[in-house]
Design a protein that fits this description.
283 residues, 4 helices, Jelly Rolls, binds 2-acetamido-2-deoxy-beta-D-glucopyranose
Length: 283
Amino acid sequence: MASSILTFTLILLASSITASCAGNLHRHFDITWGDGRGKILNNGELLTLSLDKASGSGFQSKNEYLFGKIDMQLKLVSGNSAGTVTAYYLSSKGSTWDEIDFEFLGNLSGDPYILHTNVFSQGKGNREQQFYLWFDPTADFHTYSILWNPQRIIFSVDGTPIREFKNMESIGVPFPKNQPMRIYSSLWNADDWATRGGLVKTDWSQAPFTASYRSFNGDNACVWSNGASSCSSSSNGNQWLSQESDSTDQRRMKWVQKNYMIYNYCTDVKRFPQGLPPECKIA
Ligand SMILES: *[C@@H]1O[C@H](CO)[C@@H](O)[C@H](O)[C@H]1NC(C)=O
């Protein structure tokens, strides 16, 4: 009897510990707009954003971060998602803000999403790269990661790096490294540009559109509060803070860029008649 009570208590304890680790979305995020269209469900294990004709919705992290390796699983709007955009990004504040963007541009059923990426430093972006994905991002959850350290930003999908933006301050390219950023996400209507450049409009008869989030991992991120970082410079276990892409990463990134990249600002000579941005000329 006593032992079964003990066993029961242990099981309860173990499951509540598991729940608090897995279900951390309440602890890390606030729904910030959308009047009830954004929800945190299942004891904080799942977050959903929705969009209908009246409004989209969004959330942001409670913490600000200065560098980190941040993972989130997303499952995008399924079916006819044309005209919708799901943005998932890091951003600081002010007129000279820094920003690291993933944006998912919806499409008609069966037509491919575009994964749009960009990097802003000190208020200046114009560094778009766009990709198709090698899977249907609406069928299941997939992991989208940002590694951001003082030397580089690496965007990854299910552990495969798709883009690297290196710190090239040495040749005069500003790099985001002084402004703490929050994580933001939103689902909104952008049918004036998102799908086939705005040709395909949102079909509101399919609303509400829903995107889902789970399994946030910010354990390897430096929380910035009151002017101090949670990562002390001497601490071990912050290997990611100096992580580089190794030869395997480089090979996989080349594979993605060769087979799935559909736009690269660094090769858009028409757009930059006075010359490509300096970071495009090397590497
Ligand atoms: C939508 O599908 C069309 C046709 O396959 C394609 O050209 C386009 O890149 C796709 N994605 C978006 C977001 O427009």
